[in-house]
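Note to self: keep these together.
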Amino acid sequence: MPGRRTTIPSDRRIRALHERYAPSAAAFELVYTHCEIVCALAERLLDGGHPGLDVDLVRAGCLLHDIGVYRLYDETGRLDQRDYVRHGVLGRDLLRDLGFPEVLARFCAHHTGVGLTAADVRGQALPLPVGDYLAETDEEQLVMYADKFHSKTMPPVFVTAATYAENVRRFGEDKVVRFAAMVARFGEPDLPGLAQRYGHPVV
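Structure:
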């Protein structure tokens, strides 16, 4: 990436942020484990050969991308599913407030689905400031893509490319095409090993 090298926070510092903002042990387990899994998925995709990507930046982006989810829990410990799409901008704003560089804060707001456009925000009446939330750098694209292969449903599951493509179809064929382009570029990660390690099924 051009310009001065971004200082990348350590895994320990990122974990400490999750511990600080998680409203409960259960929330931490759900969100931080998901971020760890997305990181492992991205590393497997990188093993397929993608020279030029900043591996340390990808790792930090994976571990930070969902930190805004904690701000959607209410005082009873319930997650606000209705406004869940806001978790990206909430995470971006949190990292900005903490003084993190924009290159890291963007991973939060630019990983939802296969990217949200201003037209998506308007057309779906999403509770977001109108604007484009697209993965622009190679690193952002890889974090967004790796995230598609694991879901924080209860119970959490690993998601195949075929399943995700079918799920995203309800938002338009253009989303399917965009996802297919990412599959062609990055390949598909090996899910069974991680599924066995974490005890989450593959759907």
